[in-house]
Amino acid sequence: MSIPNSTLSREVGSSVSLTRHPQPHPWNESLRGYVLRLTESNGYESPWRVYVRSGLKQFEVRGAGFDAVKLASICNCSTLQLQTLAYSDPARPRSCCLLGEPVSPMDLGFSHPRICPVCIRRFGYIQGSWDLELMVGCPIHGVRALFSCPSCHQPLSWNRPAMLICRCGATLDAANLAPLDPSARALLDIIYSKSLNLLPFPDPNEHLPIFELSQLKLRTMLRAIRAIGNCWAMTMAPTNDLVDPVQIILSAAQALSDWPENYFRLLASLGARESEDEYDVRRQFSPLYNALLRERKGTDSGSLAFFRAAFMEFIGNHQNVRAADPRLMPEIQQQAPKRYQTRAEVARSLRVDPRTVKRLLTSNVEGIKPGKFAAVDSTGLALTGAKPTRILAVRTAAAKLGVPVSVFRKLVDSHVCPITHRLPGQLGYDERDLNQFSCRLLANAEQISRKEPRSAFVSLRRVMRLNRYSTAEKTAIVAGVAKGVLKIFAVRNSNLESACISLPSLAEFIACERATSDMVTASDASATLGCSMETIKGLIRSGQLTRKRSGNRWLVSRRSVDSFRTGHVKLSLVATALETSSRRLMRLCRAMRLPLTYVRSSKRRQEIFIAKNLQERLSAEFQRAQR
Fold first, then answer.
1. CA distance 204 to 219
2. Using the 8-state DSSP alphabet, how is residue 555 labeled?
3. Choosing a second label site near 363 at 20 to 30 A (CA), which of 170, 303, 390, 552?
4. Which residues contact 331 (CB under 8 A, 6 or more apart)?
């Protein structure tokens, strides 16, 4: 609706307060509805008079970038009150929100307003949930929303003189509004409650996942409803208008009702389509997979886990669907009940070779699902016997005990952790052996006294993560706990994660191990030789000391350290004993042609060593020169 130029020239730039300025309803009123209420209270013919008084330009009120600060200057209300109703955050102008809840720009239906006349008469204002494009009906009164004027049959517009008066002057009433479908009403009640931060009313007759949907954020829930509604309308009830909000709500309500049976029907219809790649489950269930089932980093897609759990339950229990890749949602796939298992999963559960399972399935079992990951109905297996425990890979087994993989391999090779339930040539480790070893570690565990400070203890898992201990030392620690040499304490009974070791006893145990060990750390070598760590590195580079890698650290041979200590001495120590300087002794050695060992300890400094068998000659020559 255009405004005469004379009116615009008089009112543009004027920030005079309105004559009547009703206060907004914070947290639940539509901002555009509040402007319409201001228009009605002041007797204006169009909200443009309000926009012009506040200094808002025409392009500023078309989208979500509605400046609530300018509007607050003429409404006699605080900026904070209107900012709660704004469609964008001043700190993040490119993002959209509704009543403080982040939404997508496509979720806001500014171009096609809709109302419930009964709610407006009841509350006296337009609630913020009616700004959502998918809000196509009133869940309170169970009727569809009013989209057009019953008199002129033109779509509703925000440029009207009152909330219940059309631009043509006719009154907007709810006399001819169609009733809502019960499932659509229940779904709209979830959207309505979520947008206004209310609790939805339970509807046990429709069996919608009300609790799961109400846990989603508003933006995620609207995206899920839009994706499910479009997929249902595309496969179950083909229609030409897939973007119609009414059609999306009706289709999504049918797909989510009687949960999860209708959801399984939707997945079955998507799976029955022809696909270019017969092995790719992602393409087979596109576009639903891309919209809901694929995990996205940096989003709240983790709250959609109930959709993924139902999807994996459908994949694992329906024969007409191709078997899923084991790498597809592995955490959810392990929790979901599976009727159809791949040959590898059957072999892993029965603890036999996969080739044996392939031979038995080919000869004795029917109903194998086709595809790259062929699966068989586990209820039809002709194999009997007690259900075995799990066979764990080496990394999983080490993580179960809370030790590194290198330490776990040494424990198994040294028979500290005996493996008795594994067949010859079988891969993996039986869970029963690991449980027995855990019970053995906790057999002699004592409770920590309340008088003892917690700082005097360190957890066993923490010790296994420290780099100060080598793989051999960590293996010795676990072996000492298993043999009862090293005392262990537990905060709670039968819990390896809470197992702790006393720091004094651990230090004493490590000292004894290092005293009898063939390898020492670089810090111990520097303490033995009385030099810096950089000097130790220089001696290793020059070949004077030998090293060996142990896990993620390097150890120095004790024999090479002792050999260097017995055969060499620092020239600075000799100079101190003779009460002279190292430079004078260096000149004397150069004159006597005595060999010296130079080790660079830093960019500007180096350590000098001399053989002990030459020390007496050097001392005698120095004393003779002093006379």
1. 25
2. E
3. 390
4. none
What residues contact 479, with CB distance under 8 A and at least 6 apart? 411, 414, 416
Residue 386 scores a pLDDT above 50? no
Q: What token pair was written down for 246?
A: 């009414």
Residue 114 to residue 103: CA distance in whole angstroms: 18
- Residue 573 has which token pair? 């120590």
Which pLDDT band, with edges at 50, 70 and 90, does 483 fall under?
Answer: confident
Residue with tokens 């799976």: 271
Q: For 88-110, give one letter per residue: b (16+ CB within 10 A) or e.
A: beeeeeeebbbbeebbeeebbbb
pLDDT at 371: 47
Say if residue 36's pLDDT is above 70.
yes
Distance (Å, whole) CA 290 – CA 283: 9
pLDDT band at 362 (very low <50, low <70, confident <90, very high): low
Q: Residue 60 is which amino acid?
A: E
Residue whose entry in the numeric block shows the structure tokens 């780099």: 467
Structure tokens at 531: 């030099």
CB 89 within 8 A of CB 124: no
Mean pLDDT of the chain: 80
**Residue reference for tokens 């009133």:** 138
477: alpha, beta or left? (left if phi > 0; alpha if psi -120 to 50):
alpha
User: Do β-strands 568-570 and 606-611 pair in parallel, antiparallel, or remain unpaired?
Assistant: antiparallel
Is the separation of the CB atoms in 348 and 431 below 8 Å? Answer: no
Angle at 286 between CA 282 and CA 289, to 5 degrees: 65
- pLDDT winner (highest mean) among 115-119, 420-424, 436-440: 115-119
